[in-house]
Structure formats: structure tokens, C-alpha cells
Specification:
This protein is about 70% helix and about 0% strand.
Length: about 400
């Protein structure tokens, strides 16, 4: 299978784009219909759609993508569903995926590429410690496609699918394969992923992308000091050089400072985290997640005014973001600014009408305002959308049937 070995450069170019890390966006074109779930499954549960997607991922990736799309609509703040949706989209359109992941010049302005960027960034924003689950499936399938194409182009070379599968898996699992750390990370083998990245880092110490990926693996493994050090090193390399061997369009300096801030929060260093978020805003004034986290830090130290001020800034920058509106509305409710809370919670519902969470918060706010009819309707709307195992469902059902005083 010499053609597979000749494809090594293509494999490397492909995988160097896969370890990446906005706003949840709809799939280009028509909104997909909800896939039919197995009998007895909860159609209000994002987890039910996740399970269906895993069953269909390789046999019917379009259906898997539709299922994960609906998981993100039901739970738009869960990074795992967003990342999975991205993976399914890549598998559903292999040529587009190859163009996207190898940064073909014609792909950057296509709506699907912008969607993939958005999903990537959104997942990383919501959970910087996310394991890139399903990337191992994406890598394996796309590398097999490239190997198959190369073998077919080799004059007179015969092959079987089983032999090709064996050769590809042997290549991917090789200890010297540049793909190995991605695969190990995606599979949750964190020690192996870290070791693989460290080996690559020793060979390419000035490759910013390798430091960044190693930082992510350390963070997911809970090795926070090491994660911070590697991300800081990666940032410094980006600041001193305009070139790198890894494609970094998705790694803005603001997003990397944000990563450091989130790591510092977990390290119990709120002052360092605040400084990182402020640096992120120096890099990019429009990077609204930094405002959200600065607001959270203010809340944690008991400064309600600063919390609301930062969240208001986030909404000013990104008023069409569901999370911004939900968090701001919830903070206003906690501060007893009920009229303003209603405005922002209703806007969150407009932005994502399938999500249940803002409706229960709105119901409580309306009830505290004395608007019992509207509160009853909001409780009812929550009950219609909540998963069966939602702990607030019994309360919502009871309150939706309580007569107004």
C-alpha cells in the first residue's frame, strides 16, 4: 500500500486543522425537521437526540447532524452538543470538510465554513475544557477517503477495503504519527495525548499551535498550571511571529486570553482571571464573552452593580446572543430589577424558542411581579419544552394549574 504512505503529506495537512476551538448559528438553508426518535424516547431531551446521532453518525451522517442540531436547539449552552453537531456536519459533506480542514482558498466565504467556525468558537467559549469528542471519527474517515483517492490514482495498484482500513489504522496509531495526539485527545486518552503533543513540541518548539493544543489537553486533564504555562507560551509565540505551521484562524488572541482567564478561575485566582479577561478586551473590544466572565467575577465578590454593568456591555456588543440575554436577564432578576429582567428573558426566548430554561426563570419573575396569568402561561410553556427528568418540571406543572389569586 505504498500509495497510502505517499498520502502522508495530505494526512498531515488535513489533521493540522482539526484540533481547533461565537454564536450558535442555524444550519444554512432550511431548518431540518426533527428526526424520529425510537419509541419511548423523550423528544424534549437533547440527550435523546445525542443518542440517535451516535447510532447514525457513520451510516447516515446527515441524520446525525440533524439530530445534533436539535440537541443544540433544546440545550444551546451545552458545548458537547455543539461540538458534536460540527463533527456530524463534517462527516455529512466529505469534500466540503476536506476543503475546510485544509483551508482551501475557495472555502472561507462559504456559509457552511462560517457555520463550522461559529460552532467551533462557540463550543470553546462555553467550555474551554471540552474534550473534542467525535474528532477521532472525523479524522479516521477523512484520512481513509484521502487514502482511497490516492490508491485509486496509483496506476495498476490493486487494493481491498479491508487492507486499506488496516493500513490507515496502523498509520494513525503509530507513535510517530502527527495525527496521534488528536486521536488520543478525542478518545479521552489524555496522558497519551499530552505525551504526543510534548514530543511534537520538542521537535517544533516555536510552533504556537502545538503549545495551544497541549494547553487544551492539560486543561481537560485538570493540570491547570501546565495548561496556563503552555497557553502563555503559545500566545507569546503568536505575538512575536506572524507565521506558524498550524492554521490558527480560530485562535484569536482574545479567545486565548479568555482561555487563560477560565483556567485561572479554576485555579482559584480571580484577580489573575480578571486581568486575563481585560487583556482579551484589549485584543478585541468586541469579544463579549470576556464581559460575561468579568460580570461573573464581580458577582462572586458581591459587587452587583459591576456584575450588571459588565453584562450590559456584553449585550451591547452582542444583543442577538442567547447566552448574553439569558445571563443578563437572570442577573437582573436576582437584583430585583424585575421589569428589565422580563425584557431580556423574553428576548432570550425569542432568540431560542425551543429552550426551556428561560421560560421557568421568566415565570418566577412574572409571579413576583404579580402577573399571575402570564406566569401561569410561562410555567405551561416550560412544561411543554422541558425534558422528563428536569427537576423543575413537577413544580412547573403544579404552578401552571394553580388558579390566579
Amino acid at each position: 500500500m505504498t500509495a497510502i504512505r505517499r498520502s502522508r503529506a495530505a494526512f498531515i495537512a488535513l489533521v493540522l486543522s482539526l484540533g481547533a476551538g461565537s454564536v450558535m448559528a442555524q444550519k444554512p438553508g432550511d431548518i431540518p425537521r426533527r428526526p424520529r426518535l425510537p419509541d419511548g424516547a423523550d423528544s424534549n431531551s437533547a440527550a435523546s437526540y445525542r443518542s440517535l446521532a451516535l447510532q447514525k453518525l457513520q451510516s447516515d451522517p446527515d441524520k446525525a447532524a440533524d439530530a445534533l442540531y436539535w440537541a443544540t436547539r433544546l440545550e444551546p449552552t451545552t458545548a458537547e452538543f455543539i461540538w458534536g453537531y460540527r463533527a456530524a456536519l463534517l462527516l455529512a459533506d466529505r469534500q466540503m470538510a476536506l476543503d475546510y480542514l485544509t483551508d482551501d482558498p475557495g472555502i472561507r466565504h462559504r456559509p457552511q465554513a462560517r457555520l463550522l467556525d461559529s460552532l467551533n468558537n462557540r463550543a470553546r467559549m462555553l467550555d474551554p475544557f471540552l474534550r473534542p469528542w467525535l474528532d477521532d471519527v472525523v479524522i479516521t474517515e477523512l484520512v481513509k477517503d484521502e487514502a482511497r483517492r490516492s490508491v485509486r490514482q496509483a496506476q495498476g495498484e490493486e487494493f481491498s477495503e479491508s487492507e486499506l482500513d488496516f493500513e490507515v489504522r496502523a498509520y494513525l496509531s503509530g507513535t510517530d504519527s502527527p495525527l496521534s495526539p488528536y486521536l488520543e485527545f478525542a478518545r479521552g486518552h489524555l496522558a497519551q495525548a499530552i505525551g504526543g503533543w510534548q514530543n511534537r513540541e520538542r521537535r517544533e518548539p516555536r510552533n504556537a499551535g502545538i503549545h495551544i493544543e497541549l494547553a487544551r489537553a492539560f486543561a481537560t486533564a485538570g493540570l491547570l498550571d501546565s495548561a496556563r504555562n503552555e497557553m502563555t507560551n503559545g500566545l507569546e509565540l503568536l505575538r512575536t511571529s506572524d507565521t506558524t505551521t498550524m492554521r490558527l484562524f480560530y485562535n484569536s488572541k482574545a479567545s486565548l486570553e479568555y482561555f487563560i482567564g477560565r483556567v485561572d478561575e479554576r485555579r482559584g485566582q480571580p484577580d489573575s482571571a480578571r486581568a486575563a479577561y481585560e487583556r482579551a478586551l484589549v485584543e478585541d473590544l468586541s469579544y463579549y464573552p470576556a464581559h460575561v466572565q468579568l460580570g461573573r467575577l464581580a458577582y462572586m465578590r458581591g459587587d452587583t452593580a459591576a456584575n450588571l454593568q459588565e453584562l450590559a456591555r456584553a449585550v451591547d456588543v452582542k444583543g442577538d446572543d442567547y447566552v448574553c440575554r439569558l445571563v443578563y436577564g437572570s442577573a437582573l432578576a436576582a437584583a430585583h430589577q424585575l421589569d428589565s429582567a422580563v425584557v431580556h428573558l423574553r428576548r432570550a426566548i425569542d432568540l431560542e424558542p425551543w429552550a426551556a430554561r428561560p421560560r421557568i426563570i421568566l415565570a418566577v419573575v412574572l409571579e413576583n411581579q404579580g402577573n399571575h396569568a402570564a406566569a401561569t402561561e410561562s410555567y405551561r410553556a416550560f412544561a411543554e419544552r422541558a425534558a422528563r427528568n428536569d427537576p423543575m418540571l413537577p413544580t412547573a406543572r403544579a404552578r401552571s394549574q394553580t388558579p390566579s389569586p
